[in-house]
Design a protein that fits this description.
This protein is α+β, with helices and mostly antiparallel strands. Helix content is about 35%, strand content about 30%. The termini are far apart.
């Protein structure tokens, strides 16, 4: 027996040898060779529908009359592969939370991306060194005039926001590392408990 294909891509089960066998190995006919190529069964393949923690395994064949049906078995994906994917998704979510900005209690929006963080650190160092007495800090479409006393709470809020983002990532990472099954890792939600973004 051999597998071939119609022009439209549909598989065929053909009789080309003396002994014709199903994919299971069972002989279904003994014929006198040689014999012309001939379709014996209609072949149907059931598409695999794996869950997030699964992947297709082997094809399982079954015969029902003149139809052979092939169904994909499912197996769990490797636990470490799923864990690595989940930790990567976690890191991406932390970065989005960290750099998404924050809103002060008075409603002022402060940027927290990596460039904003560097500028805030540099400005704070400038105040500490006595190099500057005040800054014009642009937020949204307006400028704030800030001295050291007014700027320091902003710098502290940004530092706390960034630290809270990394702390939450560490908590999620520890929880993911503790999960023992592929299904549990795939189902774990990394989007909870983050600092509120602007």
């Amino acid at each position: 027996m051999q597998f071939a294909f119609w022009n439209n891509g549909s598989p065929r089960v053909l009789r080309t040898l003396k002994n014709v066998a199903l994919p299971s190995g069972t002989t279904v006919a003994d014929v006198v060779a040689p014999i012309p190529e001939q379709d014996l069964y209609r072949y149907e393949e059931v598409p695999a529908a794996p869950a997030a923690h699964q992947r297709p395994g082997a094809l399982v064949f079954a015969r029902d009359g003149d139809t052979i049906t092939a169904t994909w078995s499912l197996e769990d994906r490797p636990l470490e592969e799923l864990r690595a994917e989940k930790l990567a998704a976690l890191a991406a979510h932390r970065y989005a939370a960290e750099t998404g900005g924050l809103v002060l209690t008075d409603g002022t929006r402060i940027g927290t991306d990596r460039q904003d963080q560097a500028m805030i650190t540099g400005t704070l160092l400038g105040f500490m060194a006595g190099a500057i007495a005040e800054v014009r800090w642009k937020t949204g479409g307006s400028f704030l005039t800030l001295d050291a006393a007014a700027f320091q709470p902003i710098a502290a809020a940004v530092a706390a926001h960034v630290e809270a983002s990394f702390a939450r990532e560490a908590e999620h990472a520890a929880a993911i590392e503790a999960l023992a099954t592929a299904a549990a890792v795939a189902a774990y939600d990394v989007t909870t408990g983050w600092p509120e973004a602007a």
